[in-house]
Amino acid sequence: SAEQPRNRGGAVPPPRNDQQYDPAGMSYPYQPQYPPNGQQGYPGAGQYGGQQRRSSGSSKRQSGTRVSGGGGKRSSGSSHKGSSSSRAKPAVSSKSSSSKKKSSAARKSGHYNGRQLEFGSNSKVPAAKNEREARKQSKKMADAQYTYGGKKSHPVRTFFTTVLILILVLFIGVNVLLYSYVSKVNIKHGGQRTYTSASMKSDDVKNILIIGSDTRDEEQYGRTDSMILLSINKSTKKITMTSFMRDMYVNIKGNDLEGEAVDFRGKMNSAYVYGGAELLMDTIEYNFDISVDDYVYIDFISFVDIIDSIGGIELTVTDEEAQGMKAPMAEQNNILGNKKGTDYLTGGGKLNLNGNQALAYARLRYVGNADFQRTERQREVITKIIEKVKGSNPLVMHDFAKTTCSDLTTNMSRADMMFMVYKALFSMNYEMNSLRIPAEGDYTYGDHDGQSTLDVDLEACRELLRKEIYG
Questions:
Q1: CA atoms within 13 A of residue 376's CA, in its CB half-sphere
Q2: Residue 132 phi/psi, 5° resolution?
Q3: Spatial distance between the Cα atoms of 333 and 313, rounded to a whole number of angstroms
Q4: For 26-74, how does the pLDDT look when each residue is reduced to its tens digit (9 = 90+)?
Q5: pLDDT-based confidence at 429, cuts 50/70/90?
């Protein structure tokens, strides 16, 4: 190759202040180079293509091109592809000429201020000072992913953001559905509670009294046939259903329906007649020293619709029970407007009972151990309903919730009911226990004012409640 021009010191002169250093070894005012059509340069930032840049620099060094610092001439010892002339060109020293070239480059690349180059986005990328730094920039920019506005979008962050949005939408939808159920419940605020200082009380235990009556209208305040205390203990993860025998002879103390104080002894189920649900809750709390938080009232006819909404329940019925169910079912058919003999059973066995049949089974009193076995059947029916709902599909659960809530009356607020619904959802797998008050050996048969009663050992009953519910 031809000998390259040198200055007097024999060294290639450094670039002037208005020149930029080119990693390819050339000293002239820097202008971005662009890849040919179909080739990819630095992604996302308008830098010239790394591979083309390096190959261009390599070919220039092979050609032996040099530039003198004092306005010398550039000469080429061999042919160079892409050069328009073999004659040396004077180096640019004029600021106006440099500005023109920078303006031209800026129009092509986007923006260039001598140190930073911006093209196709809002990001600014420092110009590479050497080939090694250029390769690092190329790799870094190739790995980057850009979204709208030039901001980086990480796929993992995008995934979790989407999941959180879906969870939020689902949570709102579930709450709207639950509130639609709760809004169907009839809320009734009756008389004032007078006794709420029982010693058996805990933040981990919620006690709700389920009141069942055979009256057609809750305003009649008839005698209650079913009094079941539903206790949910989140500490022991147990649900206990406690039946209180209606013939227990206890002290009835509180306020009557007119707000007047009452204090007398009588059968436990008469408390509802004199003072409604509030007097009944006070009577249980006063005699058995256990906190009663709220109540839920349901009449027996509504019980039919609830069981029918889940397609009936499976029970084992004896032949004697099947025969004895005809009497209560005849009364129910008359109320429901059914033909005489509707739903009568021809015999016992393991049967799927509809609402009318299951209600007659729960009300059956004169087969077996009288009222003792009757309360046992009632707890069995409630347990079967819960088991059936737990194993049902969402559509059946929806029908059950809609029907049940429409037939309930309670003193709980909407907020309290929403809280109870969530508690019920989280307690679906709790252990189910059954209890009767009084237990065997804790009572004697009595007679008061010509009525057959159960005279109970209150201290023994309290100890049993404390052990089974709070222990």
A1: 11
A2: -65, -45
A3: 19
A4: 444 545 554 555 444 444 444 444 444 444 444 444 444 444 444 444 4
A5: confident
Backbone angles phi, psi at 294, to 5 degrees: -145, 175
Report the distance separating Cα 470 and Cα 38, nearest Å. Answer: 79
Contacts of 232 (CB under 8 A, 6+ apart): 205, 206, 208, 239, 423, 427, 430
Determine contact, residues 282/195, Cβ cutoff 8 Å.
yes
CA distance 318 to 217: 32
- 276 Cβ contact partners less than 8 Å away, ≥ 6 residues apart: 190, 191, 221, 257
DSSP H helices, 15-124, are 50-63, 95-109
Considering only CA atoms, which of 365, 327, 325 is closest in space to residue 345?
325
Coil/strand/helix, residue 26:
coil
Residue showing tokens 């189910």: 432
Closest CA relative to residue 101, chosen from 86, 112, 90: 112
User: How far is the C-alpha of 471 from the C-alpha of 312, rounded, in Å?
Assistant: 34
pLDDT tens-digit series, residues 293-350: 999 999 888 889 999 999 999 999 999 999 999 999 999 999 889 999 999 999 999 9
Residue found under tokens 């021809």: 346
- Burial class of residue 106, CB neighbours in 10 A (0-12, 13-18, 19+): middle
Please tell me the number of Cα atoms within 13 Å of 7 on its side-chain side.
Answer: 11
User: How far, rounded to the nearest angstrom, does the alpha carbon of residue 238 sit from its chain's CA centroid?
Assistant: 23
The pTM of this model reads: 0.66
Residues 241 and 212 sit within 8 Å (Cβ to Cβ): no
In whole angstroms, how large is the CA radius of gyration of the chain? Answer: 45
CA–CA–CA angle 459, 461, 462 (5° rounding): 65
Cα separation of the two ends of the chain: 102
Distances (CA, A) of 2 to 56, 58, 75, 139, 411: 20, 18, 9, 38, 106
**pLDDT value for 126:** 55
